[in-house]
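Predict structure. Chain length: 88.
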Amino acid sequence: MPFYIVNRNPNPATLTKPAHHEVHDIGQDQFPGLLATLRDCLPLQNNWLHLGFHLNCQSAVEEAMKRPELTGKAANGCYYCANGCHTM
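Prediction complete.
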């Protein structure tokens, strides 16, 4: 089961998309961080907010949007490691 984190710092807004926090799949128990590390898409570790284990990225994105620590509330999957939830 994949473990997800979200970047505490939002990606800035552009003309075509709002500011949003990016959710990353950092891998499974056996290979922590392998997928995201290979694609070099993780934020600095001190900006991680752990979302825990989820069956899929949709569940992790929903969890991220519930977190009061995040400014805004918009969340999106990382293009590289959580592409199934990348909508922006």
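Summary: Helices lie at 34-39, 57-66.
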